[in-house]
């Protein structure tokens, strides 16, 4: 939502791990993939402020849905041309768009 204007379709998020902890909270690690290094810089923002804001908002939303405290760790990586890879779509349960 925060980057809708800058990256409307060039990013995807994958959950690397979701672990329930003994204290009743959950630890989640996710990677945000973009297609170019310039997009990675947009997601991170100056001094990491954008990714920090994204993480804080996402953490609140996930905690509300999961009804438990959430420890969210976000990573941003470049995966060139991920949007043109049919396998990536299949991995997340989507059909690759045909032109």
Please give a quick description of this structure.
With 99 residues, the protein is an alpha+beta fold. The chain has helices spanning 37-44, 49-66, 86-91; strands at 11-20, 26-34, 70-78.
Q: Describe it for me?
A:
It is built from three helices and three strands, in the order E-E-H-H-E-H. The chain is an alpha+beta fold and 99 residues long. The protein has a three-stranded mixed beta sheet. A hairpin with a 5-residue loop joins strand 1 and strand 2 (26-34). The longest helix is centred in the middle third of the chain and has 18 residues, at 49-66.
Task: Tell me the structural class.
Answer: alpha+beta
Q: Walk across the major sheet and give the strand order.
A: 1-2-3
Q: What is the share of helical residues? A: 25-40%
Distance between the termini: 26 Å
**How many individual β-strands?**
3
Mean pLDDT: 87
Number of helices: 3
Binned strand content: 25-35%
Task: Encode the helix/strand succession as letters.
Answer: EEHHEH
Which descriptor suits the 3D outline? globular
Radius of gyration: 15 Å
Let me know the largest β-sheet.
Answer: 3 strands, mixed
Would you identify the regions where 5 or more consecutive residues have pLDDT less than 50? none
